Amino acid sequence: MPRTRRVPAAFLSIKTQFDNIGDALINRELCRLVSDRADTWVDFSRAPVAFERAMSVANLPHVATFRSFGFVKLILEMVKQRLAGRPCYFFLNPGGLGGHQLSFKRRASASVYNTLLALLSVLGVRICLIGISVDPVYGFDLAIMKIRRNLLHAFAVRDSLTSRYVESVGMPADELVPDLSFNLYGSAPPDRPTASKAIAFSFRFDGKADEEAVRRHIGRILSAYGSDYEYLFVAQVNRDAPGIQRIHDDALRQGFRSRMIACTDDIGHLCAIYANCIAIYSNRLHALLAAAYSGAVPYALVAKGRQPKIEGLFRDLGLEHLLLFIDDEDAALTAATNFDRQRLIDEHYRLNAYFDTLLGAPLS
Questions:
Q1: What is the mean pLDDT of residues 124-147?
Q2: pLDDT-derived band of residue 232, with 50, 70 and 90 as boundaries?
Q3: What sign has the CA pseudo-torsion 221, 222, 225, 229?
Q4: Is the Cβ–Cβ distance between 80 and 125 less than 8 Å?
Q5: Which of 88, 108, 113, 274 has the most CB atoms around it within 10 Å of its CB?
């Protein structure tokens, strides 16, 4: 790693939802954004090998990954780099926070972690939490979150709803930045077959949508497109697979050409799957964004009020015409044939501009 100038030193310790390829995507793009601008150490000791493989960052320039001695080794490296006079940044894991009450064990763990972050902050390590959304949090859990907020050097959220919420509970964000997955748009999308004739579906049912309502709408979509298309039912998270399998089986029984695809650990393969599609219907944010990157029209099929972050993001991006509501039985389901991809590319540039401000210009 270069040491010829005061290049920042950055640190990540990966602990997230390991069965969710969307989390692999945003952690990978965070690592790419950071390592473009800083020497970067990544601790994978708390992550499965498959998740490390999905992120695939070990061969990036300016990146060192390790498992042995894990988090302790990461902390010691931070101390070493700070004592050498380098500016040090510790990036906490991005993604969704809140929405459920913490167990006593997790509260205790979060409180101990806050103490460790406070000690690092005293040492001069800059704690950063970038690219998150926050669902409502209450009581002691909110107090823990507020303490952590006060330790942060940088606190940037990914949607306007979260920005308003954290402001309302007294822990305002420094910045509203695009979702980390928009960094994908800095690279060329996968090649698209000249005659793409597939439609993708990817859904979560963990309180975000009623399965029967989703099945009814998918039935309408299948009828609208007809038998000329192939239908791909994609599980990006392991727990989504049973529900998606049932919907896939419905399509098979109706005589449609369809495939069930589970892809939870290979981002490149996921994007290649979506490159075969002219459209995706989904209530998973990173299914929509990965498919849009790959050239598919992203239809957000959501229950009103159940996924306000997706609603807000699509409105912020000028994609209101691609918002479809499960509650609306009369909604037109195939109206749009394209979308403004440049608007999404602009989010890539905006995201990179934020990291330029935070860490400095990219390394040569």
A1: 94
A2: very high
A3: positive
A4: no
A5: 274
| Nearest Cα to Cα of residue 174 among 130, 144, 135, 120 | 130
Contact call for residues 130 and 177 (beta carbons, < 8 A): yes
The contacts of residue 107 (CB under 8 Å, 6+ apart) are 140, 141, 144
Maximum Cα–Cα distance for the chain, whole Å? 67
Which helix (H) or strand (E) segment holds residue 202: the answer is strand 198-202
Q: Which helix (H) or strand (E) holds 97?
A: strand 95-97
- Write the DSSP string, 289-341: HHHHHTT-EEEEEE-TTT-HHHHHHHHHTT-GGGEEETT-TT--SS--S---H
- Give the span between the Cα atoms of 144 and 169, in whole angstroms: 13
Rounded Cα gap, residues 95 and 73, in angstroms: 24
d(CA 171, CA 107): 19
**Tens of pLDDT along 291-328?**
999 999 999 999 887 788 898 889 888 898 899 988 77
Spatial distance between the Cα atoms of 207 and 267, rounded to a whole number of angstroms: 25
Q: Indicate the pairing of strand 152-157 with strand 126-134.
A: parallel
Comparing CA positions, the residue from 234, 217, 232 lying closest to residue 330 is 217
Q: Which amino acid is at 194?
A: T
* Pairing mode, strands 198-202 and 88-91: unpaired
Q: Mean pLDDT of all residues in the chain?
A: 91
- Predicted TM-score (pTM) of this structure: 0.94
Q: How far is CA 348 from the centre of its chain?
A: 14
* pLDDT tens digits for range 22-68: 999 999 999 999 999 999 999 999 999 999 999 999 999 999 999 99
Residue ranges and CATH numbers for the domains of the chain are: 9-186+345-359 (3.40.50), 198-340 (3.40.50.2000)
Three-state secondary structure call for residue 66: strand
